[in-house]
Write a structure and sequence with these properties.
Layout (H helix, E strand, L loop, with lengths): L1 H8 L41 E4 L1 H4 L5 H13 L7 E4 L21 H10 L3 E6 L3 E2 L4 H5 L6 E2 L2 E2 L17 E2 L5 H17 L4 E4 L14 H15 L4 E4 L13 E3 L13 H22 L7 E3 L13 H14 L3 E3 L8 H8 L5
Parallel strand pairs: 1-2, 1-12, 2-3, 3-8, 8-9, 9-10, 10-11
Antiparallel strand pairs: 4-7, 5-6
Length: 355
């Protein structure tokens, strides 16, 4: 239990702040694992850490086929930045409808997109939040009995921070103790990998089943879900995000060890931009320091590196983040719109990250 206790002292899941902090992140911040009978391997063989580009931090939910391919073209023309993966983040489909993609955003389809990505020498990756479902999804309409309900009302899984109550969106939690739910999710994973051809899965909001007060086997169910992906697709790289730490030991290739470094919509709000993003980047730095010791369990993922002027970071903060990410020897992901980043910033901040 010593290892478990050391992990829990850093917070129980990817984004957690200090356990005794007055400001909770997420709001339902508790340590669900007190005594665990999980079978955790003593020795873990790690894959090499990876590098890539992620769509979320530059484009938020405004992604399209053309936007992704423009980034691919830029990287193919700038081989001095040796990334491996192109990661399509949120909004490629409605949450829960993981068997399908938005045909307006991706008119030629994900299979076509991935073939194009691979032809240019990169590997395609996809974001998925397996346990959360949009109220607007087809899945909810077809299987209303699959979601967690408390006193008859759907349980919202997005109550992360105090500001979340200001937003109209909700995401409901799937009941992973329902065998049909697990079968459906593995069917989705199979489709993404075997049909569409993705080689990386960013598995997000994995904490969600823990907010079902009726759940009794959540540790085991989450671990079994992750281990099956690992067993079925050993060559696919997996990143756990918003992920309970202990059940994921030896079950994911990489772990996010801090919160998102920015919230893209705030970039357009001058009052919030500098204050909020300096706060979140400070949280990233704090969590990385606390969790560097977990590199024996997985490749460290400190979140993306960003250096565009509009985020309100000082040059010293940018350099500190760059050096921290570089010295971790973990994943290196970029998050700026590379087609708009100046040559000066590429030379000054990006290229040294890979030296």
């Amino acid at each position: 239990m010593d290892t478990f206790n050391k992990l829990l002292e850093t917070g129980w899941q990817s984004w957690s702040t200090r356990n005794k902090s007055i400001i909770k992140f997420p709001l339902r911040d508790f340590s669900p694992v007190k005594d665990s009978n999980l079978s955790i391997p003593k020795e873990i063989k790690l894959k090499p850490p990876i590098s890539g580009w992620c769509s979320w931090y530059a484009f938020f939910t405004n992604i399209t086929e053309d936007i992704i391919l423009n980034q691919v073209e830029w990287f193919s023309e700038n081989k001095q930045i040796p990334i491996e993966y192109i990661l399509i983040d949120n909004k490629w489909t409605e949450w829960g409808d993981w068997l399908y993609y938005d045909r307006k955003r991706f008119p030629n389809g994900l299979k076509y997109l991935n073939k194009t990505v691979k032809k240019t020498g990169f590997k395609p990756g996809i974001w998925i939040s397996p346990f959360l479902v949009s109220p607007n999804s087809n899945l909810i309409r077809e299987h209303p009995d699959w979601i967690v309900r408390i006193k008859g009302k759907p349980r919202d899984g997005l109550k992360l921070t105090p500001i979340d109550s200001l937003f109209p969106y909700k995401k409901y939690i799937l009941d992973i103790e329902n065998e049909e739910v697990i079968e459906y999710l593995h069917k989705c994973i199979k489709k993404l990998i075997e049909d569409y051809g993705f080689e990386l899965l960013k598995l997000d909001f994995l904490y969600a089943p823990y907010f079902n007060p009726k759940s009794r086997n959540v540790d085991k169910l989450l671990r079994n879900f992750l281990l099956k992906i690992k067993s079925d697709y050993p060559d696919v790289y997996t990143i756990g995000c918003g992920c309970p730490l202990i059940p994921a030991i030896g079950a994911v290739d990489s772990m996010r060890i801090g919160p998102d470094i920015i919230f893209p919509p705030f970039e357009k709000i001058p009052i919030l931009n500098r204050i909020y993003h300096n706060y979140t980047s400070k949280m990233v730095i704090e969590n990385v320091k606390k969790r560097e010791l977990t590199k024996i369990f997985w490749n460290l993922d400190p979140d993306v590196f960003l250096c565009r002027k509009t985020l309100g970071f000082s040059e010293n903060r940018i350099l500190y983040l760059r050096n921290m990410i570089k010295n971790l020897n973990g994943n290196i992901f970029l998050g700026d719109d590379m087609t708009k980043l100046s040559n000066e910033r590429v030379r000054k901040f990006i290229i040294p990250l890979f030296d």
